[in-house]
Amino acid sequence: MPARKIQVGQVWKKDESGESYLITKIYNEAIATFALLRKTGAEAEGTVKVKVDQRGSSQALPGFSYTQESDSF
Hints:
Elements: E1 11-14, E2 20-29, E3 32-39, E4 48-51, E5 53-55, E6 58-60, E7 64-66
Antiparallel strand pairs: 1-2, 1-7, 2-3, 3-4, 5-6
């Protein structure tokens, strides 16, 4: 499920396992945008780097679903 804009602090659920991940950083690298995610409640574990998928006016993380009902902040 895409979101209008991916932002630090959003929670996304991994499709395979159902585990929740928190976005800790968004950055650009050449012509692509990447998000760093950390499993919620597991501060000691490493982060996961995911390429942001641009879908028209919205953004998505392949393999993850946006968990918040509304993205109007």
